[in-house]
Amino acid sequence: xxxxxxxxxxxxxxxxxxxxxxxxxxxxxxxxxxxxxxxxxxxxxxxxxxxxxxxxxxxxxxxxxxxxxxxxxxxxxxxxxxxxxxxxxxxxxxxxxxxxxxxxxxxxxxxxxxxxxxxxxxxxxxxxxxxxxxxxxxxxxxxxxxxxxxxxxxxxxxxxxxxxxxxxxx
Length: 170
Description:
By secondary structure, this protein is mostly helical. 57% of the residues lie in helices and 0% in strands.
């Protein structure tokens, strides 16, 4: 599958369809990922309690303000990444903001590099082929929908070249 001449709405529908039934399950929530990033010492019960304020059943209901406040995709486990990545992708489609924490977090997590390859592959391990294809189409189409700054454009291009491009078909 390739972005070709898909509209923004068609790409959004593709993402929504590919990730429709995904729930967080036992994965890390946004607030838990922040605690991991900050290396916060707390009891197991307190750590589990952090997720009570997060939307964990329907990623489409995750608030933009939560994505902005908790852009901790790099600190997610594979289940958390699979659950939250469509919310971050949809946010980029709807209101790309160069230099924002959530924009950088999203694009950096979708651009595996040699020194972070293993970590990135861990993030991607639960993604289905359909989900990988949807992400690849999103990355291919994004530059035609938003005016990416130079660095973000390079991240998208390299992400496609180094990994996601293999999931695009003619």
